[in-house]
């Protein structure tokens, strides 16, 4: 009897889906399309056994191409709710491989709110599986740390931090108390210098620091470590910094001190919202 009841309910749900959703997710009115996507996101999260499969997910994938930003935004927030739950990751693999390129391209969306949520979604994808995103996919997000729009840059800074800076080896726990050149931050500071030099936007250190300020404050404020990298002799087997790398480190250090002292983003970077005089 229970099985019969469940079958009956699923048939009703299916009838509602085919009778209402399939027609309305392409409605002429953007608000209705947005409601449809928001709701199917909730269905997939609440009843993943029935709804979290590619015959339903494809509607969200297709709607990511919608003309209206508010509808594209709902697609991304619906997907974030699914990727956030690690238990659902295996059911999302096919969808990820099929629509990943579209999500990456949305990081350059003309609507900043959409771009921010696309980067946040990719950060969740990154956490669910390291292998999914190619080096090229990651590069496309990395360079957004230099964006003039602060929310986009901060989201990209968090993505960059999760990808390049948040790995910590088990043995690091034993050297957490070490300071200066021997601290775990030493390698991370070097990684930051290498990234900055590779990106070849040498006059924009302040932008890079501001982008990572919220997620990597402890690293960016470890001036003792930066000083010792500049002043102390390299440890055994350690490559010394080149003159170019030292100059870059000094520039980054200067920007972190200014950011800590002044507490505001660099000139030319804003939230994109108009502020009354």
UniProtKB/TrEMBL annotation:
The entry lists its GO molecular-function terms as:
chromatin binding
**InterPro entries in the cross-refs:** ARM-type_fold (IPR016024), Cohesin_Scc3/SA (IPR039662), HEAT_SCC3-SA (IPR056396), SCD (IPR020839)
| Gene Ontology process terms (BP) | sister chromatid cohesion
Annotated ranges, domain SCD: 21-106
Entry-linked SUPFAM superfamilies: ARM repeat
Its GO CC terms?
chromatin; cohesin complex; nucleus
Q: What is this protein called?
A: STAG2 protein
User: Which organism does this sequence originate in?
Assistant: Helopsaltes ochotensis
- Lineage in the entry? Eukaryota, Metazoa, Chordata, Craniata, Vertebrata
List the gene name: Stag2_1
């Amino acid at each position: 009897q229970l099985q019969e009841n469940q079958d009956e309910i699923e048939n009703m749900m299916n009838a509602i889906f085919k009778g209402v959703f399939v027609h309305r997710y392409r409605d002429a009115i953007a608000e209705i399309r947005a409601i449809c996507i928001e709701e199917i996101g909730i269905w997939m999260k609440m009843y993943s056994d029935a709804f979290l499969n590619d015959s339903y997910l494809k509607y969200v994938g297709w709607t990511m191409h919608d003309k209206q930003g508010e509808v594209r935004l709902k697609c991304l927030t619906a997907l974030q709710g699914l990727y956030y739950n690690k238990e659902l990751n295996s059911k999302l693999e096919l969808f990820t491989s099929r629509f990943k390129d579209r999500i990456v391209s949305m990081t350059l969306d003309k609507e900043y709110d959409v771009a921010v949520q696309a980067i946040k979604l990719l950060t969740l994808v990154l956490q669910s599986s390291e292998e999914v995103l190619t080096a090229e996919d990651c590069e496309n997000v990395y360079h957004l740390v230099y964006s003039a729009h602060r929310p986009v840059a901060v989201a990209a800074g968090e993505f960059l931090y999760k990808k390049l800076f948040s790995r910590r080896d088990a043995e690091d726990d034993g050297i957490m108390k070490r300071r200066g050149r021997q601290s775990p931050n030493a390698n991370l500071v070097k990684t930051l210098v290498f990234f900055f030099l590779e990106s070849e936007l040498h006059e924009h250190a302040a932008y890079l620091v501001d982008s990572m300020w919220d997620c990597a404050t402890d690293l960016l404020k470890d001036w003792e470590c930066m000083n010792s990298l500049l002043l102390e002799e390299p440890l055994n087997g350690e490559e010394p910094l080149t003159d170019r790398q030292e100059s870059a480190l000094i520039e980054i250090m200067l920007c972190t001190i200014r950011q800590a002292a002044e507490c505001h983003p660099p000139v030319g970077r804003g939230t994109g919202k108009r502020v009354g005089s």
